[in-house]
Amino acid sequence: MPTALRYGSYRFYFYSYDCKEPRHMHVDREKLSAKLWLDPDVRIAENLGYSRQELRELERIARQQIELLRREWDEFCGSDTDAN
Fold first, then answer.
1. Distance from the first to the final alpha carbon of the chain
2. At a CB cut-off of 8 Å and minimum separation 6, what does 62 contact?
3. Which of 47, 48, 46, 44 is nearest to 31 (CA)?
4. Is residue 21 within 8 Å of 77, Cβ to Cβ?
5. pLDDT over 50 at 65, yes or no
6. Would you state the pLDDT for residue 1?
7. The pTM is what?
């Protein structure tokens, strides 16, 4: 599972088998996890334990780092966004 970004205690990553899905990142901290869609804008797809405040922080970080996150996805999965 490629790690795209480490930001403080958060790890932004995706699974190699996720490439058939639209661009997204999983974000883990300790036993908490979330899934964020990256297109057309960052939004929460799934939440396993984060508070609303922390989800807003994850969205903020992802928006701040959106070019990096999309590039990491595209370099691994290919830049064909027709499936997105």
1. 20
2. 12, 25, 27, 36, 38, 42, 69
3. 48
4. no
5. yes
6. 84
7. 0.91
